[in-house]
Amino acid sequence: MPVRVHMFAALREAAGEAEATAAPGRLPVVLDSLRGRYGPTFAERLRLCTILVDGDVVSRDADVAVADGAELALLPPVSGGSAETWPTTSVALRILLGAAVATAALLADLRGAGVFWVLVVAVAAIVLVDLARLLTLAGSRPVLPAALVGGIGLPVAAGLWPDAGWEAVGAFTAGAFLLACLLVLLFGRRRRVVEGLSSTVLVGLMVGLGATSLIVLRSLPDGHRWVLGLGLVVVAADCGPPLLTTALRRGRPAARAPRPGLARGVLALLAALLAGVVVAVVLRPPFGVLTAAGFALVAAVASLTGEGLHRLLLTEAGDGGALGGAFVAVADGIALAGPAAYLLVDFATA
Questions:
Q1: Lowest-confidence range among 33-42, 60-69, 125-134, 305-314?
Q2: Could you tell me the pTM of the whole model?
Q3: How far is CA 66 from CA 28, 36, 59, in A?
Q4: Structurally, what CATH architecture does the domain formed by 3-79 represent?
């Protein structure tokens, strides 16, 4: 049996196909055959990718056997592979979009809870449109309406009925999954639809829960300060690692960017803790040292989780284009941190 080769994102684009077959042999020989088949652009991108043989990560230079019927997966940097540099254009885009959203949120917050609610729902809708574009590239369009149930329904309910906002979570979650299952039955068990089902529903619920938590948090006493403090630590956790690495690389060109894992998590936590110190000083009260530290920890975990989620979505979608996934990348940290931050505030003020 031939070796089955799976290519993702930029490598899939360079090869012109997502899957191929190759003759079994030693790994360097198999990779050389792929370079010769797909040309110099593919070869250049292959130089930075991660290689998986039957699910195990191996070095590109490893002299290991790729046996008959084995599966070879080629993951470029955007799909979770190794990278020699941080994608600076992506960082710049995230910072630009994040600054625009943060400015709009601050202005809306100053106008009152009602205006803030409208903005949060609008941003949630934009994020879901961005998600729709990504998952449409992955062939998951039939189940996209399921994301709207939680992504838009939850924050709308929280604004219209603040006292019952969290009570509606169970109903909207069950409704999203039931609708998704119904859509799969209607459109058949097409491969890409089933593969995209879990990410579609879960990201929709993530957006909805995050938006709902911000709306409910804003409705609390000193709510505008809680929301502002959360935003500051999340921005620090998201932007701190890449900006710090970029600054270090100016003096050391060979420095590598932090990858999703322990190293990037430590950098995110340090950046969030520094922002937490500022929050504890400037926004006191209602913030204290413990609540600011709790927000920093939540923001660091959310940033690391959101980065992994963003890479997973891009892996499913392939090449998302210049803006593909950018709004999801901006909002995932605050969406993931929001519910935990609300629980911290509820515990601290009880």
A1: 305-314
A2: 0.70
A3: 10, 18, 13
A4: Roll (3.10)
